[in-house]
Amino acid sequence: MGFGIIIIGDEILSGRRVDKHLPKAIELLRARGLALAWAEYIGDERRRITATLKRTFDSDDIVFVTGGIGATPDDHTRQCAAAALGVPLELHPQARQLIAERIIETAPYGQADLDAPDNLHRFNMGVFPQGASIIPNSYNKIPGFSVRNHYFMPGFPVMAWPMMEWVLDTHYAHLHHGTPHDERSFLVFELPESALTPLMERIERDFVGVHVFSLPSVGDVEHGGIYARRHIDLGVKGEPEVVAAAYRVLREGVHMLGGEIFEPEN
Protein backbone atom coordinates (compact mmCIF):
# COMPACT_ATOMS: atom_id res chain seq x y z
CA MET A 1 0.00 0.00 0.00
CA GLY A 2 1.19 3.50 -0.84
CA PHE A 3 -0.17 7.01 -1.28
CA GLY A 4 -0.66 8.27 -4.82
CA ILE A 5 -2.18 11.28 -6.53
CA ILE A 6 -3.85 11.67 -9.92
CA ILE A 7 -4.13 15.24 -11.17
CA ILE A 8 -6.67 15.67 -13.96
CA GLY A 9 -7.06 18.60 -16.33
CA ASP A 10 -6.08 19.78 -19.79
CA GLU A 11 -5.19 23.15 -18.29
CA ILE A 12 -2.28 21.57 -16.40
CA LEU A 13 -0.88 19.77 -19.44
CA SER A 14 -1.27 22.81 -21.70
CA GLY A 15 0.40 25.14 -19.21
CA ARG A 16 -2.64 27.38 -18.70
CA ARG A 17 -2.47 26.50 -15.02
CA VAL A 18 0.50 25.47 -12.87
CA ASP A 19 -0.18 22.45 -10.69
CA LYS A 20 0.02 23.12 -6.97
CA HIS A 21 -1.52 19.89 -5.74
CA LEU A 22 1.58 17.71 -5.98
CA PRO A 23 3.81 19.81 -3.67
CA LYS A 24 0.90 20.33 -1.25
CA ALA A 25 0.14 16.60 -1.08
CA ILE A 26 3.81 15.93 -0.32
CA GLU A 27 3.72 18.60 2.40
CA LEU A 28 0.54 17.29 4.02
CA LEU A 29 1.79 13.71 4.02
CA ARG A 30 5.23 14.64 5.34
CA ALA A 31 3.68 16.55 8.26
CA ARG A 32 2.06 13.27 9.29
CA GLY A 33 5.14 11.11 8.87
CA LEU A 34 3.89 9.75 5.54
CA ALA A 35 5.19 9.93 1.98
CA LEU A 36 3.86 10.03 -1.57
CA ALA A 37 4.72 6.93 -3.59
CA TRP A 38 3.66 8.11 -7.05
CA ALA A 39 1.87 10.81 -9.06
CA GLU A 40 0.22 10.97 -12.49
CA TYR A 41 -1.10 13.79 -14.68
CA ILE A 42 -3.98 13.13 -17.09
CA GLY A 43 -5.86 15.38 -19.50
CA ASP A 44 -9.64 15.57 -19.81
CA GLU A 45 -9.90 12.41 -21.89
CA ARG A 46 -12.47 9.87 -20.76
CA ARG A 47 -10.77 6.79 -22.18
CA ARG A 48 -7.47 7.55 -20.49
CA ILE A 49 -9.03 8.58 -17.16
CA THR A 50 -11.13 5.42 -17.07
CA ALA A 51 -8.16 3.18 -17.91
CA THR A 52 -6.01 4.82 -15.25
CA LEU A 53 -8.70 4.44 -12.58
CA LYS A 54 -9.29 0.80 -13.51
CA ARG A 55 -5.62 0.16 -12.86
CA THR A 56 -5.44 2.05 -9.59
CA PHE A 57 -8.72 0.64 -8.26
CA ASP A 58 -7.13 -2.80 -8.62
CA SER A 59 -4.28 -1.77 -6.33
CA ASP A 60 -4.23 -1.38 -2.56
CA ASP A 61 -3.04 2.22 -2.84
CA ILE A 62 -4.67 5.22 -1.19
CA VAL A 63 -5.24 7.65 -4.06
CA PHE A 64 -6.15 11.34 -4.16
CA VAL A 65 -7.79 12.45 -7.42
CA THR A 66 -8.15 16.15 -8.18
CA GLY A 67 -10.15 17.83 -10.93
CA GLY A 68 -13.03 17.06 -13.24
CA ILE A 69 -15.80 16.41 -10.71
CA GLY A 70 -17.93 19.41 -11.68
CA ALA A 71 -21.00 19.35 -13.92
CA THR A 72 -19.75 21.04 -17.10
CA PRO A 73 -19.08 19.21 -20.40
CA ASP A 74 -15.32 19.05 -19.76
CA ASP A 75 -15.76 17.31 -16.38
CA HIS A 76 -15.50 13.55 -16.78
CA THR A 77 -14.05 12.17 -13.56
CA ARG A 78 -17.30 11.08 -11.89
CA GLN A 79 -18.43 9.25 -15.02
CA CYS A 80 -15.02 7.64 -15.52
CA ALA A 81 -14.86 6.43 -11.92
CA ALA A 82 -18.26 4.75 -12.34
CA ALA A 83 -17.21 3.19 -15.65
CA ALA A 84 -13.96 1.92 -14.14
CA LEU A 85 -15.90 0.28 -11.31
CA GLY A 86 -18.70 -0.99 -13.55
CA VAL A 87 -21.40 0.63 -11.42
CA PRO A 88 -24.09 3.22 -12.24
CA LEU A 89 -24.09 6.86 -11.22
CA GLU A 90 -26.67 8.06 -8.72
CA LEU A 91 -27.49 11.23 -6.82
CA HIS A 92 -26.09 10.82 -3.32
CA PRO A 93 -28.80 11.85 -0.82
CA GLN A 94 -26.42 13.60 1.58
CA ALA A 95 -24.71 15.38 -1.32
CA ARG A 96 -28.13 16.54 -2.54
CA GLN A 97 -28.91 17.95 0.89
CA LEU A 98 -25.61 19.83 1.09
CA ILE A 99 -26.00 21.24 -2.41
CA ALA A 100 -29.55 22.32 -1.60
CA GLU A 101 -28.30 24.11 1.51
CA ARG A 102 -25.68 25.89 -0.57
CA ILE A 103 -28.26 26.94 -3.18
CA ILE A 104 -30.50 28.40 -0.49
CA GLU A 105 -27.65 30.14 1.30
CA THR A 106 -26.54 31.92 -1.87
CA ALA A 107 -30.05 32.77 -3.13
CA PRO A 108 -31.42 36.31 -2.68
CA TYR A 109 -33.14 36.52 0.73
CA GLY A 110 -32.56 32.78 1.13
CA GLN A 111 -35.40 31.99 -1.26
CA ALA A 112 -34.66 29.45 -4.00
CA ASP A 113 -36.66 27.21 -6.31
CA LEU A 114 -34.80 23.92 -6.09
CA ASP A 115 -36.73 22.64 -9.11
CA ALA A 116 -35.55 25.46 -11.37
CA PRO A 117 -33.51 24.15 -14.33
CA ASP A 118 -30.24 25.78 -13.22
CA ASN A 119 -30.58 24.36 -9.70
CA LEU A 120 -31.47 20.91 -10.99
CA HIS A 121 -28.26 21.08 -12.99
CA ARG A 122 -26.29 21.91 -9.85
CA PHE A 123 -27.48 18.69 -8.26
CA ASN A 124 -25.43 16.85 -10.88
CA MET A 125 -22.39 17.75 -8.77
CA GLY A 126 -23.73 15.25 -6.24
CA VAL A 127 -24.10 12.40 -8.73
CA PHE A 128 -21.44 9.86 -7.76
CA PRO A 129 -20.68 6.18 -8.46
CA GLN A 130 -23.09 3.92 -6.63
CA GLY A 131 -21.86 3.13 -3.13
CA ALA A 132 -19.67 6.25 -2.81
CA SER A 133 -19.25 8.20 0.41
CA ILE A 134 -18.94 11.97 0.58
CA ILE A 135 -15.94 14.11 1.47
CA PRO A 136 -17.03 17.33 3.20
CA ASN A 137 -16.09 20.63 1.57
CA SER A 138 -15.46 23.33 4.19
CA TYR A 139 -15.31 26.05 1.54
CA ASN A 140 -18.74 25.89 -0.09
CA LYS A 141 -20.37 22.62 1.06
CA ILE A 142 -20.29 21.02 -2.43
CA PRO A 143 -18.83 17.63 -1.48
CA GLY A 144 -16.27 15.40 -3.05
CA PHE A 145 -16.62 11.63 -2.89
CA SER A 146 -14.67 8.53 -2.04
CA VAL A 147 -14.80 4.93 -3.19
CA ARG A 148 -12.31 2.06 -2.75
CA ASN A 149 -9.57 4.09 -1.06
CA HIS A 150 -9.83 6.72 -3.81
CA TYR A 151 -10.68 10.28 -2.80
CA PHE A 152 -12.09 12.56 -5.48
CA MET A 153 -12.03 16.32 -4.98
CA PRO A 154 -12.25 19.52 -7.04
CA GLY A 155 -9.29 21.02 -8.80
CA PHE A 156 -9.50 24.22 -6.73
CA PRO A 157 -6.77 24.21 -4.07
CA VAL A 158 -8.94 26.16 -1.61
CA MET A 159 -11.33 23.20 -1.61
CA ALA A 160 -9.06 20.24 -2.35
CA TRP A 161 -6.41 20.85 0.30
CA PRO A 162 -8.74 20.90 3.33
CA MET A 163 -10.36 17.78 1.86
CA MET A 164 -6.98 16.02 1.71
CA GLU A 165 -6.32 16.95 5.33
CA TRP A 166 -9.76 15.71 6.36
CA VAL A 167 -9.18 12.37 4.63
CA LEU A 168 -5.75 11.90 6.22
CA ASP A 169 -6.92 12.83 9.71
CA THR A 170 -10.28 11.04 9.58
CA HIS A 171 -9.42 7.79 7.82
CA TYR A 172 -5.67 7.36 8.21
CA ALA A 173 -4.75 8.82 11.60
CA HIS A 174 -3.59 5.33 12.59
CA LEU A 175 -0.85 5.58 9.96
CA HIS A 176 0.52 8.93 11.12
CA HIS A 177 4.16 8.70 12.18
CA GLY A 178 3.81 4.94 12.21
CA THR A 179 7.24 4.35 10.71
CA PRO A 180 10.12 6.39 12.17
CA HIS A 181 12.01 8.03 9.33
CA ASP A 182 15.04 10.25 8.98
CA GLU A 183 16.91 11.74 6.05
CA ARG A 184 20.36 13.31 6.11
CA SER A 185 22.51 14.62 3.28
CA PHE A 186 25.44 16.85 2.36
CA LEU A 187 26.85 18.40 -0.80
CA VAL A 188 29.86 16.80 -2.48
CA PHE A 189 32.25 18.74 -4.73
CA GLU A 190 35.11 17.53 -6.91
CA LEU A 191 33.85 13.96 -7.32
CA PRO A 192 31.80 12.37 -10.12
CA GLU A 193 28.90 10.03 -9.37
CA SER A 194 30.85 7.14 -10.86
CA ALA A 195 33.46 7.50 -8.10
CA LEU A 196 30.74 7.49 -5.43
CA THR A 197 28.76 4.51 -6.74
CA PRO A 198 30.79 1.73 -5.02
CA LEU A 199 30.51 3.59 -1.71
CA MET A 200 26.75 3.99 -2.15
CA GLU A 201 26.35 0.29 -2.94
CA ARG A 202 28.37 -0.66 0.15
CA ILE A 203 26.23 1.54 2.40
CA GLU A 204 23.01 -0.10 1.19
CA ARG A 205 24.56 -3.54 1.57
CA ASP A 206 25.88 -2.95 5.10
CA PHE A 207 22.94 -1.00 6.52
CA VAL A 208 19.69 -2.89 6.00
CA GLY A 209 16.70 -0.62 5.47
CA VAL A 210 18.77 2.41 4.48
CA HIS A 211 18.50 3.91 1.01
CA VAL A 212 21.20 6.10 -0.48
CA PHE A 213 20.29 8.94 -2.84
CA SER A 214 22.42 11.00 -5.19
CA LEU A 215 21.13 14.19 -6.83
CA PRO A 216 23.68 15.82 -9.15
CA SER A 217 23.46 19.51 -10.04
CA VAL A 218 25.31 21.52 -12.67
CA GLY A 219 25.08 24.51 -10.33
CA ASP A 220 22.21 26.42 -8.77
CA VAL A 221 22.80 29.99 -9.90
CA GLU A 222 19.59 31.18 -8.27
CA HIS A 223 20.87 30.38 -4.77
CA GLY A 224 24.38 31.56 -5.56
CA GLY A 225 27.42 31.03 -3.35
CA ILE A 226 28.58 27.49 -2.90
CA TYR A 227 25.43 26.16 -4.57
CA ALA A 228 26.45 27.78 -7.86
CA ARG A 229 29.26 25.23 -8.23
CA ARG A 230 28.69 21.81 -9.76
CA HIS A 231 27.87 19.42 -6.92
CA ILE A 232 26.06 16.27 -5.79
CA ASP A 233 23.46 16.18 -3.03
CA LEU A 234 24.38 12.87 -1.41
CA GLY A 235 22.50 11.33 1.49
CA VAL A 236 20.78 8.46 3.24
CA LYS A 237 17.22 7.91 4.43
CA GLY A 238 15.44 5.29 6.51
CA GLU A 239 15.09 4.32 10.19
CA PRO A 240 16.66 7.09 12.34
CA GLU A 241 19.21 5.06 14.31
CA VAL A 242 20.46 3.21 11.24
CA VAL A 243 20.52 6.44 9.22
CA ALA A 244 22.79 8.10 11.80
CA ALA A 245 25.36 5.29 11.55
CA ALA A 246 25.14 5.07 7.76
CA TYR A 247 25.56 8.84 7.45
CA ARG A 248 28.82 8.74 9.41
CA VAL A 249 30.21 5.97 7.21
CA LEU A 250 29.07 7.77 4.04
CA ARG A 251 30.71 11.00 5.12
CA GLU A 252 33.97 9.24 6.03
CA GLY A 253 33.94 7.41 2.72
CA VAL A 254 33.61 10.65 0.73
CA HIS A 255 36.52 12.16 2.68
CA MET A 256 38.67 9.12 1.86
CA LEU A 257 37.83 9.56 -1.83
CA GLY A 258 39.06 13.13 -1.68
CA GLY A 259 35.70 14.83 -2.04
CA GLU A 260 34.95 18.26 -0.64
CA ILE A 261 31.94 18.25 1.67
CA PHE A 262 29.51 21.01 2.60
CA GLU A 263 26.76 20.32 5.15
CA PRO A 264 23.85 22.79 4.82
CA GLU A 265 22.12 23.80 8.03
CA ASN A 266 18.70 22.10 8.00
Keywords for this entry:
Molybdenum Cofactor Biosythetic Enzyme, Chain A; 23% strand; 9 helices; CinA; elongated; Molybdopterin-biosynthesis enzyme MoeA-like protein; 38% helix; MoaB/Mog_dom; 4-stranded antiparallel β-sheet; alpha/beta; MoaB/Mog-like_dom_sf
Task: Please render the helix and strand layout as text.
Elements: E1 3-8, H1 10-14, H2 21-30, E2 36-42, H3 46-57, E3 62-66, H4 77-85, E4 89-91, H5 93-106, H6 117-122, E5 127-129, E6 133-135, E7 144-147, E8 150-153, H7 157-171, E9 182-189, H8 193-206, E10 211-217, E11 231-238, H9 240-256, E12 260-262
Parallel strand pairs: 1-2, 1-3, 3-8
Antiparallel strand pairs: 4-5, 6-7, 7-8, 9-11, 9-12, 10-11
Protein described:
By secondary structure, the chain is of the alpha/beta class. It folds into 2 domains: 3-175, MoaB/Mog-like domain (Molybdenum Cofactor Biosythetic Enzyme, Chain A); 182-262, Alpha-Beta Plaits (2-Layer Sandwich). It is built from 9 helices and 12 strands. It has helices at 10-14, 21-30, 46-57, 77-85, 93-106, 117-122, 157-171, 193-206, 240-256; strands spanning 3-8, 36-42, 62-66, 89-91, 127-129, 133-135, 144-147, 150-153, 182-189, 211-217, 231-238, 260-262. It has a 6-stranded mixed β-sheet with strand order 2-1-3-8-7-6, sandwiched between helices. A 4-stranded antiparallel β-sheet has the order 10-11-9-12. It has a two-stranded antiparallel ribbon with strand order 4-5. Helix 3 packs across helix 4 (77-85) and helix 8 packs antiparallel against helix 9.
